[in-house]
Amino acid sequence: MRGTIGLAIKLAAMGSLLGCVSEPNIELKNSYDPSKSDLGPRMGEPLACPWWTDAGRTPDAARGPDDPITGRATPRPDVSVERPRDGGEAGDATLARNALTEAGAAPPGDAAPPRDATPPILTGFVLFEPGAFEMGSRAEDPDRNDDEMLHRVIIHHRFWLKRTEVTRGEWRRLMQTEPWVTSCAGDDCPVEHLNWYEAAAWANERSQAENLEACYQLEACNDNLPAELMECARVAEVGIGCEGYRLPTEAEWEYAARAGGEQRRYPWGNEPPTCARAVLSERGHGCGTGGPLPVCSKPESPMGLSDIAGSVWKWAEDWYGPYTEAPLDGSARIGATQDRVIRGGSWLGGGEYLRRPYRNRVTPGFHVDSLGFRVARTAP
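Request: output the structure for the sequence above.
Response:
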């Protein structure tokens, strides 16, 4: 029942457009308030991100120096910028503790900060609090695949997830290469045509640029040249205990796509995928453009994530395997198998790949113009 990305790409290349899933419209329970964004103001050509509107951006008085990686202004450390909350007065911390208690597990002492504590701010990232959620899909889902076994996951750590996919401009500033091959124009296009090793190498470079611990030991690697994609003979992963940047775990990705654990078919809710909601193959690949669009071209998720579904597939930290062998604490499945997990669907495939529990996998050295990444970081 399930297909691999290779099959999807071959079908698409032959001109077989994949249909979209039809679901009744169900009103979203959450909403994102752009006036409570923690994202810094833009620099240069403005992006289309709703949270970067004049009402939602960091005030000029709060502007700090331009970030050397993103090229955008960062908030001054002495100016607080409130982040969005979906939990009312109780906030995310209380919701997370309630979820942990409901799951029958006592939350660890550092599972969430006190209600009145100021959460840490990482410019360009969304902070997710600990919580418990049902990962996978229900047996009655007509599109359910065999590898989507429903199971309870309890995330004990806080983590940041990048609001957008890593862009071409962000890649070039650190790596000084241009591996992308699609017709999407500009530095705000998602970087693509990258394998897992290269995504991990970029995460390491950003960590080192900010004097943080590198989360990957990549050994016996060839050079990352435009004509020769990076391959590594040995990889050691620190995991969620690493303080630097890393790829999100599969559990973190699904938790974020669920807007912090809610039951929803897609990141935006239960309405079917269309080009009004995501960059997918509808009316032609990439909504008729033949490729991805710049980040933030479509509405963000309720938690303020851009292109969490569609645009390009995203690498996950995990090796692929059945959920019966997966950790239940939100950490990655580490232990070499043949494939790494990718999530989210892309501009080259239909709406069925955007379904929130849908899993896909490819070899870590695989690269294609519909595959990119975003990064995460464990929060203190």
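The first strand starts at residue 63 and ends at 66.
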